[in-house]
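hey m, so remember when u said the tokens were messed up on ur end? i reran from scratch. heres the input so u can diff it against urs
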Amino acid sequence: MPKVKVMIGNEQKKIKLPKGLRPLVRKCCQAVLAAENFDNPAEVSVLFVDNERIHQLNKLYRNKDKSTDVLSFPLGENGVYDINNETGAYLLGDVVISIETALKQAKIYDHSLEREVGFLTVHSMLHLLGYDHETTPLEAARMHEKEEMILEELGLTRDKEFSEIR
């Protein structure tokens, strides 16, 4: 199983992060790398922010003047990544999640916040590995299928609560 170091930060104060959220994010990152047969050590940064901050980042980096649920900032291209000279780990990139939007979407889709954050983490990790659902409908379907397979393996299906998978 690949070794992944996940640095998790929380820049927002509006929503208290549930106790098991950080380990869940780490498990999701690990699961994506395992599903993709990514055997190299890796580093990923995950940052929780509020809607205002993700709006700023979305406008700055994607020229979209609105908030969103998650942003991915890949550091590699076509499977080529920078390497941390001290650790030898591949630097995959950064994930930014709006916890406000995640909570809102969890309510809309009638599932737990943990399931929503799990989905957003898996989705972004696939982006960091080169998947892009905005290129073609086939690529979107491929990415969605991969997301659902990984979430199923993690026990984060749409109809299961987080407490059932601990």
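this time it looks ok to me. Residues 79 and 129 are 7 Å apart (CA to CA). if urs says something different then somethings off w ur setup not the seq
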